[in-house]
Amino acid sequence: MTAEPLVEATAAHVRGAMLGDASHDWWHVHRVWQAARTIAAGERAAGRSVDSTVVELGALLHDIADWKFHDGDDEAGPRAARAWLESQGAEATLVEAVTDIVRRVSFKGAGVPDDMPSLEGRIVQDADRLDAIGAVGIARAFAYGGHKGRPIHTPGEAAVLHASPEAYKAEADGNGASTTHFHEKLMLLRDRMHTEAGRRLADGRHAFMVTYLARFDAEWSGRA
Asked: Within a 10 A sphere around the Cβ of 37, how many other Cβ atoms?
């Protein structure tokens, strides 16, 4: 299957396959897909070579079997992505490139360095992180917290800057407040963007979260 029909078929496949809650649904994938295309265009305009097919397929398949909804299995996503691409007759090099992005894309803890060697992967990772911050990111954080039965806010609860993927995964299954998660992940993402377009878009979204959390604190304490 050639590139454009494969992307279209993958979009249709993912739309029907997403089983996560509202924070990890088809519309999350769709937003990441569109943001990845925007970032890729910026990278090409800056003179960098970008494989658009790898970017689009990586974005579409990045959450096809998220470990948070598959008993913590880190390989569920890569396996699902590989199985789909091979079923469509994709070339081995394309399968490997996309599967590698799916394997590496997730945030794994504040103290865990990013490990994304390809430019295409960094584009997808930036796009995914953009959807975790700003107005949409706030909505997603509370949607996931509700799905897990977490409190909205626990006064005095300390954020934990997880030093290993195992510690971060344990937190994902815990009952920490949604607002605490902002300080364990969301507020850190602006400074972990790889691309110029990602950093530019993240600046505005990060600023919105700062304003939101200040307002949240004021309302929670009865000062506003």
From this structure: 16
Q: Tell me how far apart the terminal alpha carbons of the chain are, to the nearest angstrom.
A: 58
Q: What is the CATH number of domain 3-220?
A: 1.10.3210.50
Alpha-carbon distance of 170 to 199, in angstroms, equals 29
Which pLDDT tens digit goes with each residue over 33-62? 999 999 999 999 999 999 999 999 999 999
Concatenating the DSSP letter of every residue in the chain gives --HHHHHHHHHHHHHHH--S-GGGSHHHHHHHHHHHHHHHHHHHHTT----HHHHHHHHHHTTTT-GGGTTT-TTHHHHHHHHHHHHTT--HHHHHHHHHHHHH-S---TTSPP---SHHHHHHHHHHHHTTSHHHHHHHHHHHHHHTT--S--TTPPP---SSHHHHHHHHTS---HHHHHHHTGGGGGGG--SHHHHHHHHHHHHHHHHHHHHHHHHHTT--
Task: Tell me, rounded to whole angstroms, the distance of Cα 220 from its chain centroid.
Answer: 29
Spell out the domain ranges in the chain: 3-220
Q: What is the per-residue pLDDT across 201-221, written as a single tens digit (0 to 9) for each?
A: 999 999 999 999 999 999 999
| Whole-number Å distance between alpha carbons of 102 and 55 | 11
Return all residues near 192 (Cβ < 8 A) that are at least 6 apart. 114, 129
Contact 53, 90 (CB under 8 A): no
